[in-house]
Amino acid sequence: MRKILLSIIGILLIVFSIFLANQLIDSKSKPKPVKEKIIKTVFIDTVTNSTVPILIPAHGSLVAKRRLELYSEVQGIFKPRTILFKPGQEFNKGQVLIDIDASEYYASVQSAKSNLYNDIAAIMPDLRFDYPKMYQKWQNYLVNFDLEKSTPSLPEMTNEKENYFITGRGIVSSYYNVKNLEQRLSKYRILAPFKGVLTEALVTEGSLIRSGQKLGEFIDPSSYEMEVALSTSYATLLKVGEEVKLNNLEHTETFIGKVSRVNGSVDPSTQTITAFIEVKNDTLKEGMYLEASLNAKEEENAIEIDRSLMLDGNQIFVVENNALNVMDVKAVFYSETTVVLKDIPNGTVILGKPVPGAYAGMLVKPFSSESNNTDNL
């Protein structure tokens, strides 16, 4: 009987212990916290369609519109002059750039001119007796013949007899030989074809100049051109004479140029077309790097937004009922930082700045100064 009583007591103690343990466990359990909905504060913009100018960005270096590479066609010693042949030196039109010693060649030219004069003088007695009507004009030619000046043109031959007589005496061939020598003599002195500045000098006074040697470069600093390569899709939009806004790299100076030429062919390797922008300003220098904005056309009923707001598949986020949604849009032009969109109804509320981790259905609220102050409390 005692054993049965002890067994019943033991069983009761075990049951009581289990019950007590369950009570302790239940007392320590806490209700799961309800996840609070997070509402993101976002910047918004309201769509107002308008006319958006399409600006094509381009860049390039300035090159003088009129430039001259100086080469020598003769050989000789570079003669010293009062105006030095140095980079940065300015020359007026017609002023001597380079003077090469031509004393030896000049003597040969004078000899040939003297021979021509003697040949004409030798036929004068025959002309006086056989062709008296022709005598006077050839006599006047000899009187006006000056060895120190350029050889004058031969008198006009009025008939075949005169032509045969003069040609048969070798006078015509002697005349053209002299003119050829005089033409080559003029190449010993290189004159400035326009007012400009020397940008490169590869020879110095007293040096031996050889035929075919490059001597330097000469430019007109009053007008420059910038060559830009544009996509063929803009070929029909570019117009000669259209004004172009140019800026330096620091955007501290602005210049106004114009499209002077548009190449008629397309580069097959890059599928681009070349346009030339002419600009004039006293502060410009050859080789300066400028950025240009070409006015291609104006897109009506469109808006321009930051490219970072675009989603894959030509979509953007719109705000509807305090939540984000996606909308299909039509992009008509992309620049480096912006995109021009069409077919967005007026009054549509879109994101003004990108939101990290944004998704369709995300709860948002527009940014305002009041909400910003509340968030900071």
UniProtKB/TrEMBL annotation:
Annotated Multidrug resistance protein MdtA-like barrel-sandwich hybrid domain residues: 69-215
Annotated Gene Ontology cellular component terms: efflux pump complex
A GO MF term: efflux transmembrane transporter activity
SUPFAM superfamilies: HlyD-like secretion proteins
Residue ranges annotated for the CusB-like beta-barrel domain, each copy included: 227-297
Origin superkingdom: Bacteria
Pfam family, one: BSH_RND
PANTHER family, A to Z: HLYD FAMILY OF SECRETION PROTEINS (PTHR30469:SF15), MULTIDRUG RESISTANCE PROTEIN MDTA (PTHR30469)
Protein name (record): Secretion protein HlyD
